[in-house]
Amino acid sequence: MKKLAAKLWAVLMLMLVSLQTMATDVFTSNRTDFRDESIYFMMTTRFYDGDPSNNVLCWDNQEAQKSTKDPCWRGDFQGVIDKLDYIKALGFTAIWITPVVQNASGYDYHGYHASDFSKVDCRYQSGDGKKSGDVMFQELIDKAHEKGIKIILDIVLNHSGNFGEEHFCKEFDRDTRLRNQADINACMIPNPEILGSDYPSLLPAAQYQRRLALMKNTDGQNHDSHNYWHHLGSFNWDFPNRWWAQIAGDCVDFNTENNTVAEYLVKCYGNFIKMGVDGFR
Length: 281
Known about the structure:
Radius of gyration: 22 Å
Number of helices: 10
Strand order of the largest sheet: 1-2-5-11
Largest sheet: 4 strands, parallel
């Protein structure tokens, strides 16, 4: 009798698991209209710290981050995975996360200062994707889908950051080892052929102008001969040039009318679709 009861219990557990899997599949696949979604927005780096080993300071204002023991890069993909059940229990069916592409600026924890649209920023992830304990963006997508939760990715199509862009104006080589990310000199290696051999010796304001000129031709020379960026360099909130210049100096406006730029962005974000991202904002 005990053996029979044990077998019945095992069968019931298998049935429950199967029903749960079927429910998740139906829950996800039947929702094709985003007006049916209840969407939870998060800034990933400020949401939940699932892996303290990948915490890292932003380059700017480091003393404040140290004094509060709150590095700007703290939340991560592991933290989102850890809270999937919590988010689902609140009644949400989708998560909208801030941009995940590789960034470069003093304060870039929000994800809006892209330096390479083809890569996921090393600071969101755990490890390098080569070891069994690593947590990469793909795992977050897969784990969310297992819970019936969709991933909406915030994306930027109209500008890069002010440190160039890997495929259009490679001003730097990025060292993605985590231990170097808090030090601009360790993780952003200047390209002397592009920036000039004297770049490291320039004051920060002059370095910024040197970087910007390579994209915007603000020094009167035609550096951006392929017109990947709009070349208007002045900026004023009250005039139409706000659409073509650079917001706050960091958001350098792409020339998205250029087919090469448009095709590159489509290719990059097409790869995120292939990974399973459910929607873009």
